[in-house]
Amino acid sequence: MVLYGSNYWNEIINFKALLRHGMIGTADLELFSFADDPRTAFKFLQEAIEIDAADQTPAFAQSRCRVTP
């Protein structure tokens, strides 16, 4: 997930406190990338998309959330 505006998001959500209180794990922090300019945000998005060489379609990372009908 790309969060645009690192100063804003670090003020709104205290990621260090969430980690310290066991609300999230260290691996959860790796789900976030911070970008402060469009070029950096676009770079993160490009790096997150893997192209399947066989059919040239993008394969996005699977969500860790489970949705049950």
How would you sum up this structure, described in words?
With about 70 residues, the protein is α+β, with helices and mostly antiparallel strands. The protein is built from four helices and four strands. The chain has helices at about 5-10, 15-20, 25-30, 40-50, and strands spanning about 1-5, 35, 50, 60. It has a two-stranded parallel ribbon with strand order 1-2.
Beta content: 5-15%
Number of strands: 4
Number of helices: 4
Order of helices and strands: EHHHEHEE
Tell me the radius of gyration: 15 Å
- Separation, N- and C-terminal Cα atoms: 25 Å
Strand order of the largest sheet: 1-2
Structural class: alpha+beta
Low-confidence runs of at least 5 consecutive residues: none
Largest sheet: 2 strands, parallel
Overall, the morphology is flat
Q: Helix fraction?
A: 40-55%
Mean pLDDT: 82
Protein topology:
Layout: E1 2-4, H1 6-12, H2 15-20, H3 26-29, E2 33-35, H4 38-48, E3 50-51, E4 58-59
Parallel strand pairs: 1-2
Antiparallel strand pairs: 3-4
Provide a concise account of the structure shown.
With 69 residues, this protein is an alpha+beta fold. It is built from four helices and four strands; from the N terminus they run E-H-H-H-E-H-E-E. It has helices at residues 6-12, 15-20, 26-29, 38-48; strands at residues 2-4, 33-35, 50-51, 58-59.
